[in-house]
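Good morning C.,

I know you're traveling, so I'll keep this short. The sequence:
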Amino acid sequence: MDHVSVTRGRPGLALLLTAVALAGPLAPVAAAVTSPGTEAGVELSADRRTVSAWMPYWGDTEAAYQDALEHADQLHTVSPFWYEASADTVKGHEGAGSEAVIDGLHRAGINVVPTVTETPGASEMAGLMHDPRRRAVHVEALLRMVQSRSYDGIDLDYETMAVTGDRAARERVRTGYNLLTRDLCARLHARGKQCVVTVLARVRGSGEAYDYQRLGAVADRVRIMGYDLHWSGGDAGPLSSKDWYEEFLRYATDTIPRNKIEVAFPGYGWDWTRGTKGRAGHLTWKEAESLRRQTGADYNFDAQSGTPHFRYRQNGADHDVWYQDARGVAEQLPLLKKYGVRGTGLWALGFEDPEVWTALRGQ
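The tokens, ready to paste straight into the viewer:
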């Protein structure tokens, strides 16, 4: 994945406009809104809605919001990608905490569980999480953010700390994150709020900084990022594959209660330029399809992975584009059913093939 590389790769969007400090008065708390089927520690969605989705803070945010409202009958949770945590503060990106968005989603019966990413790397985060005092300060900062609006909980998408080639550092992150989520989830549950964690797929050496079993015991939901098998900084190839889903679902369902697992699908792709070492360009499904038609490229579908792709030539350079569409999602969904997983997710609202919603309805 990664959510972090996508956001940080967009110039001009790093401006942080709001800050939730550790001391001082809380922001006014809006009247609590009780969404249907929502209670910390209890299976969500009495009406059996099975999809959650992230809402980016960049791009066409109004279109993403309208996308959520249009599919409210399938969405149980929307996670605006609004916040970033340092060691002792939580800051908001542009548009964070919009009461109009929060209230609109609540009126549609959708839970609002904002996502928080982290800036410190593995070494700093491990030290923080293993230090009881510093860990408590960090938890308080997160709780203050949750209380600043009528949020239904929090989604921790802590990836920066998880990406390290040092095995000892990964182990300290893993054990430290167990302590942090134990403390945070308990505090959130005491307030009737949800505790959600987003993790890398635990397969082929990836995701070792996450203890699936412990996270599954304390969190209400564990969201597995089912994308970036091939990522922007690597070789061209499918973002996900059926074999890959089989591998990480086997491990996940052995360690996490199935009703807590969500597998998130990509609504985007990468455009790799052959023969260069630069990062691939990010494309939403709509952008990928527009580019394919514009260049006259053939639509190809890789049956082994369950993903579309195409090739084109521009300005003397050859390009490979791999992405995901509704056909691909429909091909991969049977893997979730095989392992008894009904929870699905989408990265991200406004990115996806509109027909994905029809495919997800059958899950």
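Safe travels,
E.
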